């Protein structure tokens, strides 16, 4: 940590500094080499805004405010010293980290052709987030130039001698899962500040040309720390420079409810915990308890489509929608059971079950990097491909419905357990179905890149999912191999049994009175129980 009021920096070296509101810290770098033409100074804090400026009294055009901010110092001939000023907006002390990075005359200048933001040269990345997506945008870069020269014109032409030849590589970096500490952020943001370190540690998501808009969308991962940065590359000189890295957790640390430490609502935990109990039972006993299996699959099928419908057409709160979804799911499950009891159509029931498994399988396919291919930005292409993959499952298993039911109950039932785990511990596996739901509910989610982290926690939970699915499928296959594929049609069985009792006089059940007569006799018995006892003596009239 630096001395109070003064921060001595060396080029390319990070320094941690405690900032406060009342006493600005003066950051100074000395002995800058003559071949350095630009110095980018940046400061990062976790959740509290800091102010970085060229002057002690910051102005709009000479300062920046935020958790990840930087300034570009264009060096003059003979200049060897640069000075900046730092302070926080909070009354309490704020932990931050600062670094200054040098660039030469052939290196492009990040934000050198800024026409949108306040700073004349703005190397910052501006980030906004919602519960659905994250939006980053930045100012175009300019070509590098020597000290004392005039900067190249940003609009002089579009040839190879202008800034239009520049390329922008957008990188993403995930912080460790379930870790919201300041020191972890400070140590990892260093890996995303310099060009070589960004290339070594970040994930390259896409490349933009000067013809593209300098803004990108990503899927939001509430509670998961993510760092973004952009490298601008000059293909003529093969030189590069990095913008200011920006981070987000897609949640608020200050909110008392639904903050970064407690994202899942109580209603969500109750809903998915109950679903996980039913799913775990279905995973191991779904085919044996056929009607329970039908109820589980019908619940998922009806609940999903009802939640989509009620979200798009109403403005009800989340808890109300979840309760109504649970009710709709129960009705859907009971309807599927009733349909089986009345119609006895195995093919109809297996089509619904196969469709549920197909949706999960198709969602898993698009959860992989395949889902970020540019061709699937088109909604028509995406939904046609998604539906084709989903329908492939019931079509492939049309000749072996028992195998389909056992596999579906094992995989879908075990995934319900994973969704319940995601309510208590972060795991990227929940986004297999959540990203599908986001795409259904939000018209513009197709533009978002849906890359997610896959770290130790995810490998453990993935192993649990695979173990549960394989165990459930294996147990059911071994138990059911000598049994009939499906139970007999219950309605036809009941009709045959009724006809048998009505025609077979030797069957003791033949002599059982009809249901209406039995109910009438039972009511008479109850009536006699409440009647007063008759007085003692003669109870019948004398016979003449």
From TrEMBL:
Pfam families found in the cross-reference section? Ig_TM7SF3_N, TM7S3_TM198
Domain TM7S3/TM198-like residues, every copy: 273-477
Q: Which UniProt keywords apply?
A: Membrane, Transmembrane, Transmembrane helix
- Location of the protein in the cell: Membrane
Task: Give the bilayer topology.
Answer: Multi-pass membrane protein
> Does the keyword field hold NADP?
no
Q: What is the lineage of its organism?
A: Eukaryota, Metazoa, Chordata, Craniata, Vertebrata
Spell out where the chain crosses the membrane: 270-287, 294-314, 320-341, 348-368, 380-400, 412-434, 459-477
Which GO biological process entries does UniProt record here? negative regulation of programmed cell death
Main site of residence? membrane
**Mind telling me which GO cellular component terms the entry cites?**
plasma membrane
Protein name as catalogued: Transmembrane 7 superfamily member 3
Q: Which organism is it from?
A: Aptenodytes forsteri (Emperor penguin)
């Amino acid at each position: 940590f630096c001395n109070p009021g003064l921060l001595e920096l060396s080029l390319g070296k990070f320094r941690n500094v405690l900032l406060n509101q009342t006493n600005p810290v003066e950051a100074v770098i000395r002995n800058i080499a003559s071949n350095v033409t630009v110095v980018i100074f940046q400061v990062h804090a976790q959740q509290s805004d800091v102010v970085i400026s060229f002057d002690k009294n910051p102005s709009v055009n000479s300062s920046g405010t935020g958790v990840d901010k930087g300034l570009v110092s264009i060096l003059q001939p003979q200049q060897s010293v640069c000075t900046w000023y730092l302070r926080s907006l909070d009354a309490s002390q704020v932990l931050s980290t600062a670094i200054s990075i040098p660039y030469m005359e052939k290196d492009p200048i990040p934000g050198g052709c800024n026409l949108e933001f306040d700073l004349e040269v703005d190397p910052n990345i501006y980030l906004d987030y919602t519960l659905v997506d994250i939006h980053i945008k930045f100012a175009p870069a300019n070509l590098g130039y020597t000290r004392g020269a005039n900067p190249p014109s940003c609009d002089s032409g579009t040839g190879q001698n202008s800034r239009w030849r520049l390329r922008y590589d957008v990188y993403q970096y995930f912080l460790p899962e379930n870790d919201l500490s300041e020191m972890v952020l400070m140590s990892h943001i260093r890996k995303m500040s310099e060009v070589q370190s960004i290339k070594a540690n970040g994930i390259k998501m896409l490349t933009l040309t000067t013809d593209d808009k300098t803004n990108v969308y990503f899927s939001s991962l509430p509670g998961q720390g993510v760092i973004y940065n952009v490298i601008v590359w000059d293909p003529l000189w093969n030189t590069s420079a990095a913008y200011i890295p920006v981070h987000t957790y897609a949640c608020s640390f200050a909110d008392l409810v639904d903050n970064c430490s407690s994202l899942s609502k109580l209603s969500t935990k109750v809903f998915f915990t109950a679903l996980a109990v039913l799913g775990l039972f279905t995973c191991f006993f779904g085919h044996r308890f056929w009607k329970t299996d039908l109820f589980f699959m019908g619940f998922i099928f009806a609940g999903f489509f009802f939640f989509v419908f009620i979200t798009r057409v109403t403005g009800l709160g989340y808890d109300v929608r979840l309760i109504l979804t649970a009710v709709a799911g129960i009705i859907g499950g009971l309807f599927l059971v009733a349909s089986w009891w009345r119609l006895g159509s195995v093919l109809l029931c297996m089509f619904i079950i196969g469709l549920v498994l197909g949706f999960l399988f198709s969602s898993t396919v698009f959860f992989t990097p395949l889902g970020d291919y540019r061709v699937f930005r088109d909604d028509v292409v995406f939904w046609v491909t998604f539906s084709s993959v989903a329908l492939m499952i019931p079509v492939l298993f049309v000749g072996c419905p028992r195998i389909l039911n056992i596999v579906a109950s094992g995989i879908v039932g075990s995934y319900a357990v994973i969704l319940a785990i995601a309510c208590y511990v972060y795991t990227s596996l929940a986004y297999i179905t959540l990203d599908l739901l986001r795409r259904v509910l939000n018209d513009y989610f197709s533009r978002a890149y849906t890359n997610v982290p896959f770290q130790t926690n995810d490998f453990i939970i993935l192993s649990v999912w695979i173990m549960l699915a394989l165990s459930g499928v294996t147990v059911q296959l071994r138990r059911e191999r000598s049994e009939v594929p499906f139970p007999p049609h219950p309605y036809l069985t009941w009709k045959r049994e009724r006809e048998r009792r009505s025609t077979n006089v030797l069957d003791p059940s033949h002599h059982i009175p009809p249901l209406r007569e039995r109910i009438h006799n039972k009511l008479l018995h109850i009536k006699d129980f409440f009647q007063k006892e008759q007085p003692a003596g003669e109870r019948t009239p004398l016979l003449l």
